[in-house]
Amino acid sequence: MNIDGDRITLRAIEEGDLPSLQRWANDPAIQSLLGGWHFPVSARDQKQWFDSLSVHSTNQRFAIETKDGELIGTANLVSIDWQNRTAFHGMLLGDLQSRGKGFAQDTVKTVMRYAFDELGLYRLDTDIIEYNSASLRLYLERCGWKKEGTREKWYYRKGKRWDKILIGISEPQYRSFVSNSDI
After folding, report:
1. The whole model's pTM is what?
2. Helix/strand/coil for 125
């Protein structure tokens, strides 16, 4: 099953995607925009990660593909809590040529539609490092998410401390966003 947006398709990650995923995992410019610690990723480690993926997991990861079939990134719904109907969402556009063309916005909108309309989740959360202004604009200004808090000096990058910006969207906020936009 694929999950179709207007400009992208979310699909299962396949073994043939691993070289691109490994390249993106080892790109310092990409990794500096993401949370967590990042170490060099070998082909073996990438394959082990892939082998651990399961449709039965509460961590679901998707390949982002253009309508032309080009792999441009990944999106996820992880730490899915079925009792409370919540999940954490993340996204990475690894193909630098795809940025600024509306693919990220379509991906977030597609993930929201899938999470709220198909999975019946109640809220999605994510966090963004304070200097990732492009992601903050995307979620807060173009996708209806709300800033919910700050964890001061959470990240250590580029020789200094940076805040973690906590953002989220609930199902009612999503419905309001949809009714007031062209989604």
Report:
1. 0.94
2. strand
